User: Which sequence fits this backbone?
């Protein structure tokens, strides 16, 4: 009998010793915990000791309730409010034991408003501007720490003492670069260097002036297809237009979207064209000169004198042709298969013979060679004009009359001399 009682006593002592709670711990640790209003938060209660199945209860000092008993030991706040501030107590007991262990913690709720960014509506490349981050409505906050981030890069750190101020702000001077486009500018506000923070971000869109790139040939042959292309990389995306400087746009050249021009060239298209790119930042123009090559065509030889050629006159021949640009080469020959007279002086489109004689006669050819390789020929027949028959007859009558007169005059003189000798 005594032995059985002894065993029961040992068992009770074992259970009591092995089911003790030595201490209760609350996480996060500390006698006072600061929690940001509006955040999600939880306290976790745990016991130190040999109790395998502890039971927990959370109570708030301002209520008469013993709290709700929970097995997961957590007290959760999905959205902390100012009125949630107070002292909270966790009591823990093991199994059905009436012995409790208690632990209390004070939750202080601090608050400040969501930060507000004030910045220009348009950010322009290489133009400095001020961006202000402000925050107000403080509660249980002695100071705030304001940090600025560009993307993930910290670009400015500033601590502001709030004291009794109703509003705290910090200004960042930002010089915008086009590479910032798409990056977030973030203002982060922490109270008293605590972990919780509030942020406000703005996705940057940097505006910059258009930069024009023209892709087009500066010259082409008449009747060839032409393509002129203009591109620009401005932000916002610029409008692109083609204009003809100082003149109306030619009907045979067609302007398309995206800055393209197509058409078949005509000599009248020659001139200065400009691409105009425009956005809210700037209007930019870039010019190109279009040359239209054509010819040779309508080639001819102009002569001086324009009528009959007489012996001894100067013959001046000029080769004319409709073309652009000027001929690459003029080649003068005399046909068929006769070399130019050695007296002929040739200078490009001009051929001159100072003292025209019978052996200078012939058919003169001018061959025009264009830069494109196109050629065209023109011919001129140079010959001495024969004298009219009436003029020849007059000269013969004059010669006979002259002879008769000479004969009569000679006979009178001879008779006079003979009569004088007979005396």
Assistant:
């Amino acid at each position: 009998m005594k032995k059985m009682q002894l065993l029961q006593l040992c068992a009770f002592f074992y259970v009591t010793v092995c089911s003790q709670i030595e201490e209760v711990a609350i996480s996060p640790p500390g006698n006072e915990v600061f929690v940001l209003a509006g955040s999600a938060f939880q306290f976790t209660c745990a016991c130190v000791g040999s109790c395998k199945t502890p039971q927990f209860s959370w109570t708030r000092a301002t209520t008469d309730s013993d709290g709700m008993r929970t097995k997961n030991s957590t007290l959760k706040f999905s959205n902390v409010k100012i009125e949630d501030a107070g002292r909270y107590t966790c009591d823990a007991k093991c199994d059905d034991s009436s012995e409790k262990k208690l632990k209390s913690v004070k939750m202080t709720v601090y608050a400040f408003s969501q930060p507000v960014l004030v910045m220009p509506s348009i950010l322009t490349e290489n133009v400095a501007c001020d961006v202000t981050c402000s925050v107000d409505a403080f509660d249980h906050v002695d100071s705030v720490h304001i940090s600025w981030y560009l993307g993930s890069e910290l670009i400015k750190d500033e601590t502001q003492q709030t004291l009794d101020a109703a509003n705290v702000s910090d200004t960042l001077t930002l010089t915008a670069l086009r590479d910032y486009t798409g990056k977030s500018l973030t203002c982060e506000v922490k109270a008293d260097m605590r972990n919780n923070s509030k942020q406000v971000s703005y996705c940057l869109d940097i505006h910059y002036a258009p930069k024009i790139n023209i892709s087009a040939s500066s010259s082409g042959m008449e009747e060839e297809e032409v393509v002129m292309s203009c591109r620009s990389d401005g932000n916002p995306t610029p409008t692109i237009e083609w204009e003809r400087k100082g003149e109306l746009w030619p009907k045979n050249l067609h302007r398309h979207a995206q800055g393209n021009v197509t058409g078949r060239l005509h000599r009248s298209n020659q001139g200065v064209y400009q691409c105009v790119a425009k956005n809210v930042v700037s209007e930019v123009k870039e010019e190109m000169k279009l040359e239209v090559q054509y010819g040779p065509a309508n080639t001819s030889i102009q002569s001086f004198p324009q009528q009959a050629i007489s012996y001894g006159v100067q013959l001046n021949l000029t080769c004319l042709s409709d073309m652009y640009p000027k001929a690459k080469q003029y080649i003068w020959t005399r046909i068929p298969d006769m070399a130019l007279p050695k007296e002929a002086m040739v200078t490009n489109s001009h051929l001159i013979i100072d003292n025209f004689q019978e052996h200078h006669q012939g058919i003169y050819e001018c061959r025009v060679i264009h830069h494109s390789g196109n050629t065209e020929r023109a011919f001129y027949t140079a010959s001495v004009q024969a004298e009219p028959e009436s003029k020849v007859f007059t000269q013969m009558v004059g010669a006979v009359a002259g002879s008769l007169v000479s004969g009569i005059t000679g006979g009178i003189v001879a008779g006079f001399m003979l009569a004088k000798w007979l005396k």
Remarks:
- The chain has two helices and 31 strands.
- The domain at 296-382 is CATH 2.60.40.10 (Immunoglobulin-like).
- Residues 6-18, 389-423 have pLDDT under 50 and may be disordered.
